[in-house]
Amino acid sequence: MEEQNHSSGKELQPRTRAESPGKKSWHSQAYALGAVSNFMSTFLTFPIYKVVFRQQIHAMAVSQAVQQLWHEGPQYFYRGIYPPLLSKTLQGTLLFGTYDSLLCSLSPVGPHSLQHRWAAGLMSGVVEAVALSPFERVQNVLQDGRKQARFPSTVSILKEFNSYGLWGRLSLGYYRGFWPVLLRNSLGSALYFSFKDPIQDGLAEQGLPNWVPALVSGSVNGTITCLVLYPLIVLVANMQSHIGWQSMPSLWASAQDVWDTRGRKVFLIYRGGSLVILRSSVTWGLTTAIHDFLQRRSCSKKELKD
Fold first, then answer.
1. Which secondary structure element, helix H or strand E, spans residue 154, and what is its range?
2. N or C end of the chain: smaller count of CB under 10 Å?
3. How far lies 127's CA from each of 2, 49, 116, 287, in Å?
4. What is the pTM of this model?
């Protein structure tokens, strides 16, 4: 997050609030914005995500995935949406709120260096993974068409997990596939927050409307980050779709199995990547733009009161 010049009467930019260590009013705004924007973007892009998930599991084309969902019927089209709606709402509060809190702790006075943004993003991704991995686990089981008869609802999955012992609930139940989730979330958050503001600042210098730099920055940065980590996304989907007491393979064995089932071809690993671009562009573009808009309004009102 770069230092912003406040001369010439321009509207305050979001970076300002991170450079004012004594002002905490922006915290609640960041949490609320993250929750609302993530909720809306998740609901709007869920059909895209479900098609992508089927591609990741079955390595099928877009048309085949859509046809499979259509054949199952409209009553199953939004099956599994409640866990991601809840998890993404929580993700918004954790992602932005935790990042800003950690960033101010690491660097109370701006401008914040790339190292500080990277470290704060990495740690916020760790918190996010620990808190939200169980939601993603339930979601991936629900969205696997092969398990609709055995697990028709979220409650049925929770009953299955809770029937295990304490360690089984964690390792085989709620936190199955946790290590790739931790790696994906920590690296993804670090990349997103490291380059989001530099891209936005560069675009803002072109004299574009205030919402355009944030929208483009979030869209481009979120999409690139998602594509870089896409193999981990596929690995997580495959590991978390399994359920039961069967022997759980190691992370390396699971990665090797995904590689072998995709014919050892990179383009099959990235099958569904085109839809990931669309979903990431919409989700991260909207989230970043709304967050930036409300944050600038909060800063402007604070300046008027002062």
1. helix 154-162
2. C
3. 25, 23, 17, 19
4. 0.77
Identify the DSSP state of 282. H
What confidence score (pLDDT) does residue 160 get? 92
Total length of the chain: 306
Q: What percent of the chain has pLDDT over 90?
A: 28
**Residue 61: which residues within 8 A CB-CB, separation 6 or more?**
55, 271
Low-confidence ranges of the chain (pLDDT < 50): 1-26
Beta strands in 173-245 (DSSP E): none
Per-residue pLDDT at 207: 87
Round to whole Å and give the CA distance between 201 and 224. Answer: 18
For every residue of 21-75, DSSP letters joined together read: TT--THHHHHHHHHHHHHHHHHHHHHHHHHHHHHHHHH---HHHHHHHHHHH-GG
Angstrom CA distances, 289 to 37, 78, 210, 218, 245, stand at 9, 26, 9, 7, 44
**Single-letter amino acid code for the residue at 95:** L
- Within 8 A by CB and 6+ apart from 218, the residues are 196, 284, 285, 286, 287, 288, 289
For residue 286, the tally of other CB atoms under 10 A from its CB is 21
Closest Cα to residue 145, out of 268, 51, 278?
51
